[in-house]
Specification:
The structure holds three protein chains of three kinds. By secondary structure, chain A is mainly alpha-helical. Chain A contains 13 helices and no strands. In chain A, about 50% of the residues are buried. Chain B is mainly α. The chains are: A mainly alpha, B mainly alpha, C mainly alpha. Chains in contact: A-B, A-C, B-C.
Chain lengths: ~325, ~120, ~500
Amino acid sequence: MLFATAIGIVLSRDLIAVVMLTGIYGFLSASFFVLMDAVDVAFTEAAVGAGISPLLMLLTLAMVGRREKASRSRNFFALMLVVITGALLMIGTFGMPAFGSANAPAHMHVAPRYIEQSGTEIGIPNIVTSVLASYRGFDTFGEVAVIFTAGIGVLSLLMLKPAQRKAPLSNVAKHHKVLRIVSKILIPPILLFALYVQFHGDYGPGGGFQAGVIFAAGIILYTMFFGVDVAQQVVSSAVLRVLAAFGVLLYGSVGLVSMLNGGEFLNYSVLAENPLTGQHIGILVIELGVGITVAAVMVMIFYCFAGQQNKKEEAEE
Amino acid sequence: MTLLMSHYNYWIVVALMMVGFFIVIAQGNLVKKIVGLNIFQTSVFILYISAGKIHGGSAPILNDSITVYSNPLPHVLILTAIVVGIATTALGLALVIRINKAYGTIEESEIQQRDHSC
Amino acid sequence: MLSHLPILQVILPLLGAPACLILGRGKIAWLFALLVSALSFCIAAMLLHTVYHQGVISYALGGWQAPWGIEYRIDLLNAWLLLIVSGSSTVALLAAQSSINVEIAPEKQTIFFVAWLLCLAGLLGILATGDAFNVFVFLEVSSLSTYTLISLGPHRQSLWAAFRYLIMGTIGATFILIGIGLMYIMTGTLNMQDLAQRLPLASDSSTVFTAYAFILVGISLKLALFPLHLWLPNAYNHAPSIVTTFLAASATKVALYLLIRFTYTVFPSHFSQIDIPLEEIFIVLGITGVLSASVAAIYQADVKRAIAYSSVAQIGYMVVGLGIGGVLGLQATLLHVFNHALMKATLFMALAAIACRIGVTTLTSMQGLGRKMPWTSFGFVVGGLSLIGVPLTAGFISKWYLVSAAALSGRWGLVVLIMVGSLLAIVYIWRVVEALYFKPAADSTPIKEAPLAMLLALWLLVFANVYFGIDTRLPVSISAEAATALQEGRP
């Protein structure tokens, strides 16, 4: 099914159809991940691949147009390159252990310790969170930096000049009373759910990133129906920048505090008398840092993209 | 034959990757290129996650009633990779919007034409 | 505090970036960024000193020992590169404020410095880590911030150049990710030292070979090794001038570091010699890059673009050194990494100064500048001499080592080709010198000399070029030790 979707994307000329297919692709991937027992990943992929990605693409299409022009010139060369690469990769898979085998090297070396010891060393049930937030916490710090960088990049490209923000904006949603009322009812539960996901990440699928995305989705919903103007009065761009930076700094400070307490950077065991408590505190705070930055950056990116739409409409009026 | 049966999963993933790769290099529309990039990356994720699966295992959340868990490490890596992917997509799309404003088009061939004629 | 140096090297700029965003207003952002970069340079110097005298430093992040946790591992190779990257960042930042006042709108200047710090953090993170996946994460941090920096350039071509680099760069990063994944599937670990021990056990399988192939291609894309160099001339040409100065001296060096690291430290190198003629491939691709890029440079109307092509050529030299191999070949490459950073930074800094005053860098517009901007022009000349490899400049030293390595390995044809490359460099540098000094100015508008900060940065680099051309003890000894250590690591 995934393959059919992908081919559909290649052949389709209507970009909105392409975006829809992309969303479907993301959703199918997420389902596949569930089948592979990767529930955290499925959660994230669903939020990203079937949520944020199509959203941003649609916003882009609103600016650039939905039809693709035909061009057949480079296809042969590209096809050759792709076939060669694919063949190389196929050959590569011959040496791999069989799918699902429990004796594969991947399962024999580093992973068993996570599975066996994380209960005693860190004390939370979700092993993925243990690895993500503690054992390989520095990777996650890099990940937060990546999100922050993307936010900075989008900001530099699509930054709204102060003048534009005050312009009145055409707002189709004003005419949809039902949508407005329903969204007003939905937003608080969405935000609450985000908080739940944030703090429950230790016990089930969830954690900072997913929570941040859901929280941002709530704000974005609000923005879609009440306009960027109004939303900016509630949560302004300046606040978002500070929050995005704050999340990263929060994460980093946990590491710095660890160093001050005599341990290495991001060693949570030294944060409290009892190493386990230290681990819990460390994980809690850094996940919070992740959630804050992710939410802030996502909303910031949305403001930038949606704000472009307003600029275009003004230019046309 | 046994090779086919045990590895067909991986081959499908490779095929998906190649479709994504093809879209990126062959198709001229910038938004489609980014979509292709997404497909390419997502297929790589599927490869990693498939490698982490153990027959009869379950999601790696500690539970007294479960004995076999699937490998949590690929999950961690892919979570980070997904985030990297969306970061790249967002940046790429922002560039597309600006390019459209500057060049008036988002087809690669037209952009190159306009650059050469300047 | 001293034991935490490895991680401080990276988190200083990494945390400095968001701090800069909060603090940033006009000049404060610049000064803050400069301060952070200068501190990073000091840390790098301290690290180099420690590693040189005491050996490899290992730091377990999070308190978890490798391979369960992420390890930072500093040896001579990456300490050397840490110094080069942080040094070029600091020197470039010195001149940055004056340069971007002309090229970037005021409201975006704070973001510029934030992106710069992120780029620096990303590059340093790639260098310092001993974990393969961590490399990928920080590779993306540096790449995304680089795309942002390039897109801040003054022309619309900057946007297109940034986009093309984004596409090619992400393909490269994804290839590297595939390679890392395949390696993990075969060994179960991500730590580089651990991989080095476990990969030989699996080396007969096609998967390991494929893993290496993908990593190689991915790195080559980032390295701009011929023929995957297509993004570089445009990106360097249209980025803000001071960004080009920084990138030319650092980004591709980091990619080269990855190439060396993966080839020598991670993968069982005997296997790469037996199965595929890797050395020959490096030499062929390298020298082709040198010659084709040098020829292309001669035909460019814009000097910035010509020097960008020259960068592709220089990268070719470095890869040739790798191909020749042995301690001498490796040493030549490592020396050239240092000297190239110096000479390119000088050349691009001079161009940035020119762009600051006259807005463009085309050959015709630069006529007669030798008289109006004497300090800047002479700085360019010295950089050019270093590029060609004239004695008394740093460039001569690395060319000498490269030629010696080629000669000692009996590859006389290669020696000739390397010399041809230098001759071609003379041609395109001479064109600029001719325009600067021997052609009359197009009009008589008065043009001031470059701003003081830029001149200061430029002449710091000029001085370094000459100093290290004469007193070569530091780079030669470090590169020799690093090369020997790498060679010994091979089975």
